[in-house]
Fold each of these.
Amino acid sequence: MSENAMSTDIILAGVGGQGAVLASKLLARAAMGRGLPVKTAETIGMAQRGGSVFSHVRLGEDSSSPLIGRGRADAIVAFEPAEAVRQLSFLRPGGRVVTSDAPVVPVSAATGGPAYDLPAIMSYLHERVGEKNLAVVDAAAAEAELGTARVLNVVLLGAAARAGALGPVTLDDLAAAVRATVSPRFLDLDLRALSIGDSPQFT
């Protein structure tokens, strides 16, 4: 938790189309279900596919502003590994990172710009965050089991809850938020996405 043990500061990060905004709403609703005060702030104008999208979610009494200062976040939950790196300056010492291992290669990398070096990105995360504070979700295995990559955001939230990265918010809290938020058409899939992290291969 943050310096004040009554609050937890979390950054959710990804690219447009990965469901970062929905994930922040689910997390906020899960926290409110526990009676916790919640403040959120989201990027605006970057929702096109490929653009960076991130949300600040602050849980607890000691959250006077919706924005998290640099070096203050207790956790980063990233749906794309380069976006985890992009947000690292916000992570406090000893903070946790839960990230997908699946890259979303920017168009610039395919049109002569800097190459997207996934091994270097993952190595940097391991070095900067430390093994005990980094959880990497096997996105390909999750997709194979669920039959789709569309709920990777929910898979990551479940993994983060299991890793203790969401402060007081539990897996049961997230499941309640999913039931209250997600269309009945997709409810079973999203609940399966939360529970898939029970397998050791996802932690």
Amino acid sequence: MSKSKKETKDEGLELVEGALSKGERFIEENQKTITIVIVAIVAVVAIYLAFNRFYVKPKEDEARKQMFVAEQYFERDSFKLAINGDGNYLGFQDIIKEYGITKSANLAHYYLGISYLKMGKYDNAIEQLKKFSGDKKMLGPEAKGAIGDALMELNKTDEAIDYYLKAAVEDNEFLAPYYLMKAGLAYEEKGEFKKALGLYDKINTDYKKSNEGRYIDKYIQRAKLKIK
């Protein structure tokens, strides 16, 4: 090995050893602080796990039992009982208040919003549905679509179209054409037939096998006839 290479190697080893020495000194000098930090992290994790096991989980189990009855009323279109409860079991409104940290309470926002929508209380429906955090496959898009329906009832067509388009997620072959169709019809209400035609063409191209796709041709022809 040449002298220059040996010197370079030695210098490299010295740097590594120096870095290790500095690291060791840092640990020695801050051992107490490091120990406190590690203990604190372990304590936080332990508290979090205990909180979930002994508080959140029991609350979740209780909320599910209450939700089951409220959901039964919802399925039977007994929306007042679903919202307010029957005296023995809570309705969606009180489930949200009593079990706010649970997944059931989040789902109750969805049910509560849909109940208000069915009852014609559109502002209340929008408020609750906006508080719901759902998945991107089904309930999330359905909540956005329901907000669109409520906005249409309030004659806020532009906002409704925005929500219908948000609901028309690309990876859902059932919901996407349904809400694209709703957005297209809303555009027609505004007299914006070219925009409606664009959505109908998308249904025809991307979702031809869907329920909407099977009869989309007549909407395409209608929009074309009305475009000046």
